[in-house]
Amino acid sequence: MIRQIVKLSPLCAQCCRHGSKLYPDLNRGEYSRISDVDLNTFTSIVGSNGVKTEELEHYNSDWLNTVSGFTELVVSPKTVDELSAVLKHCNSQRLAVVPQGGNTGLVGGSNPVFDEIVLSLERMNGITHIDPDAGVVECEAGVILQTLSDKVAEHGYTVPLDLGARGSCFIGGNLATHAGGLRVIRYGQLRASVLGMRVVLPSGQILDGRSNMRKDNTGYDIKQLFIGSEGTLGVISDVSLLLPQTPVSVNTALFGCQSFEDVVKCYRISRQYLGEIVSACEFMDSLCMTSVQDNLGLASPLEDNHNFYFLVGGGGNVLKRDHF
User: How far apart are CA 304 and CA 235, in angstroms?
Assistant: First the structure.
């Protein structure tokens, strides 16, 4: 029977109790319970490799282990047609679903609250096409960001998004949460680089808005509704991204500041004199620097201690010109 008690580690069990304390007034909706018929249906759609009923702690808990649910089933479709069939069945049987990408989020948005089915995109991980002339990549939602970056780098391009979880987060999850990342100053929010998208609606209907057209003013830009919607409107299955050229000259500088006002001045001066080659700016205070030194055993690049630290990074495609 599918209705079995999920065995949780003591840590995970503690997390589950913590989650219930966070939302004491939240009740399970009037959704169906998973039956053997449902399990057999999912297996017939995605195959035995796409259905998991054991060792589900990774899918139940968030990256920080602060929240967790009690899912008893993970379904991982391989194609958009399988994804459509799974959602169509869940919709017809009133089975609650939570879409999940790389599960690297820090707020529990990709984890079940109760016993929802986890719909994992981990098997939809193909890079279907790279156009080196137009600088466009087409890929499925389950492609890991680092994998995508490495692949397009072979053609002289880079992904406009970069963040700390690049080695495990999925591009589909990046879009669903509208992740900002480190390069917003240079390339803008990720939605600005999305040329097309294919989405499966909760009913199972496939909304195919894939396109490689950079300039497209033909009516409503429907894809923007799904960027940042976190799976509430539909599940992203494929995306076409516009890629910037990989910078030839890459530079990084760290400055020590005595006040936050000095940090703001450094930022303004960086934008003023470095212009479009600035790709990232970060700051941290002295407590952050101390934490890095104490926990990671790293030394500050600067000899003196400062109240604040300002880090600026940038790059361009003209080696002699685009440097700090």
Answer: 50
Residue whose C-alpha is closest to residue 236's, from 92, 82, 121: 121
**Quick one: which of 136, 119, 138 has its CA closest to 128?**
138
Burial classification of residue 298, based on how many CB atoms lie within 10 Å of its CB (0-12 exposed, 13-18 middle, 19 or more buried)? exposed
Can you tell me the distance from the alpha carbon of 71 to that of 170, in angstroms, rounded to the nearest whole number?
A: 21
The pLDDT, as a whole number, for residue 20 is 53
pLDDT in tens, 152-204: 999 999 999 999 899 999 999 999 999 988 899 999 999 999 999 999 999 99
Residue spans of the chain under pLDDT 50 = 1-18
Kindly list the strands in the beta sheet with 97-100, ordered across the sheet, starting from the edge strand earlier in the chain. 51-52, 74-75, 117-120, 97-100
Let me know: does 94 contact 31? Beta carbons within 8 Å: yes
